[in-house]
Each structure stands twice: as structure tokens, then as C-alpha cells.
Amino acid sequence: MLRFAHIEFLWGLVLIPVLLILFFAVAIWKKKAISSFGDKEVVKLMMPQVSTSRPWWKAIIFLVAYAMLVIGASDPQIGSKTEEVKRQGADLMILLDVSNSMLAQDLAPSRLENAKLAIAQLIDRLHNDRIGIIVFAGEAYVQLPITTDYSAAKLFLNNISTDMVPTQGTAIGAAIDLGMQSFDFKNGTGKAMIVITDGENHEDNAVEAAARAKNKDVSVHVLGVGSQNGAPIPVYENGRQVGFHTDNTGQQVVSKLSEDMCKEISAAGGGVFVLANNANSGLGIVMDQINKMQRKTVDSRSFKDFEDRFQFFLGIAFVLLLVEFFISTRKNMRLSGIKLFEVKKS
Hints:
The chain is an alpha/beta fold.
């Protein structure tokens, strides 16, 4: 099987007919210029060193060398071996709290940024598992459908902020239910959710949602971000902090980690609760539990090992350019004077 690693470079071959047309145009112009001096045979005698065939040979060799360079740059490859690779993994859905309380800075630089860093590190540890991301505050939205494209996962992760969900609140139950809808239960792989939140649930019964997930063999783990002492919630305008959230009496609102709620959700969901801190995100413990899940083959893919062949084309191009360089456009008078097949009359 033949393929090109950089097939877009083959567009360079389009220049060959253009160069050929230019060469014809120059040749015709030279011919007319010489004819303007007088009779063709007389002019030919006046310029015995001028060769009419050598420029054509030089042009042909140059164009072939150019074609070899373009093909070499596109890196032609030949498939040598085919393998069947079976992928075994689990489905993992991250449920990330993006309510304003996640801006609190009891975890540096903030709860949300600390959580995003932990998720990025988790993605780096994945191999064959699929991952998806749901963001939630007062409502829940799918930020990234479940996928094996870890680069895309990091790209979507970087764009997450508290401005993504217009309705404030902490609807953990809605996020769990949305996660259940996002799973494909036909493929038979192990499934788990990781809820990353400060646990201040005000919208629904997250414990019941976690129990429903467990009944369908989906474990729900909870990573608690924040501290029991809590921290005020910053207010930003145009990217700059201008103060802190206050209540109706003008007192600063202090957001505290609801550890009891987090433990209840994880217990109902058959998962574990881990408390994050500045030194350790805690996702390592969660991943240890997820790695114990049953993994099944979800697909098989054919891979071919390809060997590069660009060196042959580049080598041919180099030799041709070397030959073209040493071909003179003028005749060698000493060699042209040698007539091996001339028959002398006695």
C-alpha cells in the first residue's frame, strides 16, 4: 500500500506545465531573435558553438529533478505490515461545577482553576478510556461529548469558565442525570462519573440521582474542592477583581465546602469521596477505583507500519541536478571536430 505523509506537497507538480510553457516561450523568442540577424544557415555558421539540443536536454533533466524533489518532499510511504489492535477501556464522565462559588480562592489559584489542572493531569493518565465533560451551575450542559480525543478534551477544558452557565446555583442532580443520558449503555464498558464540586447543592436531590446511576452500574465519585473554613467569592469586571460577593445586609458571602453532602452523594453512587487540597488533587485515588472497573473491547482498528521512501526520490533529484549543472549550453569544439563515422574518399 502506497501513501504520502504530506500529500499537500504534491500540488507543487502543478508548476511543471507552467515551467514547460515558459521554456517553450523563451525558445521561440530566441529563435525569432536569431532569425532577425539574417539567413538561418549563415547565422548558424557564425555561431558554431551554439547548441540547439542541449538547452532542451537541460530543461527536461531539470523538470524531472524538480518532480522528484516534490515527490520526495511529500514523503511517499509503503505499508509493510498490518496489525489488528483491540481497544479496551472504560467510559468516564467529568461533572465540573462552574458556579460562582468555584471562584473562591481557598485552593490556589481558585477552586475552579485547581480543578481544571487536576482534570488535565487525569487526561494525561488516560490511554484507551473515553472521556466526556459536563459543566453545571443552576443548569447542566454537555461541554464535551464522550470521546477518545484527549487533545480535544484539553482544548475544551481550557475554555471552561463560570460565565458558561447563565443560571447560578449548583444542580448536581441534573448533571448526574445528563451524564447518564450521555453514556452508551450498549457497548458494555465500565462507566463512572467524577463530580468535582464544593458540594453546595441548592437545586435538586443529587443523592437520589447518584442512587439511580448506581442502579445502572455507574459509579459516582466525588472530588470535594474547597475548605470547611471557606473563603469569600471574588467579583470580577473586565478580568480584574473589584471586590467580593455580599448578601442583602452587605456582609461578604463565605463559601464553604459541604463535605457531608459530598459524602452522601458518593455513598449513594457507590463511589469514593476525596478531598482536594493544594498539595494533592485527590484524583489519583479516584482513578485507582476506576481502574478496577471491568474493561471490555469496544472496537478494533487496523494499523499499517509504513516505511519512508523519500530518500530514493531525493537521491535521484540530486543526481539529475548534478548532471544538469555540468551540461553546457555550448558545444565542445574539440569533441565536435571528431567524426568517428566519416568516410573519407580516396
